[in-house]
Amino acid sequence: MTVLAGQLAVMAFGVADTVVAGRHSEQALAALSVGSAVFISVYVALMGVVQALLPVWAELRGARRFEDVGRSVRQALYICALTCVLGMALLLAPAPVLRWAQVPEALQGEVLRYLGMLALGLPPALLFRGYSTLNQSLGRPLLVTWLQLGSLAVKLPLTVWFALGGAGLPALGAVGCAWATVLVNYLMLAIALWLLRTQPLYTPYRLWRRVEAPDPRQLALFARLGVPAGLAILVEVTSFTLMALFIARQGTVAAAAHQIAASMGAVLYMAPLSVAIATSARVGHWLGAGDARQARHAVGVGLGLAALTALALAGTVLLAREGIAGLYSHQPAVVALAGMLLGWVALYHLADALQCVCVFLLRCYRITVSALLVYCLLLWGVGLGGGYWLAYQGGYGVAPWASPAAFWMASAGALALTACVFLLMVRRAVRRSVSL
Question: Band of the pLDDT at 162, cuts 50, 70, 90?
Fold first, then answer.
């Protein structure tokens, strides 16, 4: 629950942006939909490289190699620096992607300004993710949760002020939402560094020693885990976010309605993500301690909790979909289309919850490349490709269905197949570990 509270606070950033942009204008909401799709694709993929280090640090702690945790964290700073440079370069030059996705030119100017501002906030966001991952691996996520909840109290009024204007500041729309996010990211990082320096929790790990020269062995381990994990998350996220770019050509109503559905889908995802983080931390700890049977028990508890939570959340969204859509926008056409899409979001979430926990567990057992291949085949091929075919091409007796629902339907089916494959892979990995 501690991890979930923090993750929901972070997701509330995006929900606040969506609601405020929707109140500003339909154009701002559509620009936010496209811009956030690009940013999330970049940020979450790079975040996955950092997040993949969780089982490494959890195992070192489980083996009581405390100073090795500190050395590993310092080596991870090289990974963070590389991801920051790469991510900023991508966010500052998104024009080819926007043209490839045929985003309307009327939206591109505001999207470019939005992403240019968020590029400045990427380094503190990734470094804070490293701090969050460290705390999760140590089984102490509470400090991160308090930071995330506190940052929400700062983010909300800043978003309203910058996006809608007031007190002498002009309304900046989607760009105002980005300004608020950047300022909050730097504030969170500053407090995290202060906590690392002052809290006795971190003393055994000797984090503040001089940064060693790059260790090829350590960096190779990080690469074996982080690169496939980051690429897998890139495939997972782009199968979700590229929908916004392809849907943008259907007009501002479709883009705005999809943004509402995507925002709710992202909020729902925080529940299984929190379960996955907590479960992988426990599984990594027990594997590091050499107790594969306790690790197996943690796997079962995590998967069961994710399934029950997903059923409850999906049922709630399905029943309340029209009311939820009305909270985001006052435009009748947008609300009607978004209400229909939220029905597909509920089905999408059921599969998304199981596959999310499974992919974190597979990393604990050092299974990353095969998970990446499954993602490429099913999420890109069946989900995104199938949605594009349904929406714009058709064939074999199926007429093109130029609606965001085509993408959500195909993606829900692809995630269901992915969850089934991953469950089998987890079962096999756990059995092999116990039998050793």
Answer: confident
CB-based contact 327:338 (threshold 8 Å) = no
CA-nearest of 127, 137, 122 to 192 is 127
Do the beta carbons of residue 58 and residue 284 sit within 8 Å?
A: yes
Tell the residue number behind the tokens 């991510």, with chain if given: 87
Residue 425: its pLDDT value, please? Answer: 95
Q: Are 129 and 47 in contact (CB under 8 A)?
A: yes
CA 338 to CA 260: how far, in whole Å? 6
Residue type, 46: L
Q: 247 near 258, Cβ under 8 Å?
A: yes
Helix (H) or strand (E) holding 133: helix 105-137
26-51 vs 105-137: helix crossing angle, rounded to 10: 30
pLDDT in tens, 179-216: 888 999 999 999 999 999 999 889 988 889 888 888 88
**DSSP secondary structure string, 49-118?**
HHHTTHHHHHHHHHTT-HHHHHHHHHHHHHHHHHHHHHHHHHHT--HHHHHHTT--HHHHHHHHHHHHHH
Q: What's this model's pTM, rounded to 2 decimal places?
A: 0.70
Give the Cα separation of 287 and 436 in Å (integer): 12
Q: How far apart are CA 423 and CA 306, in angstroms?
A: 13
SS3 259: helix
313: closest CA among 353, 273, 276?
353
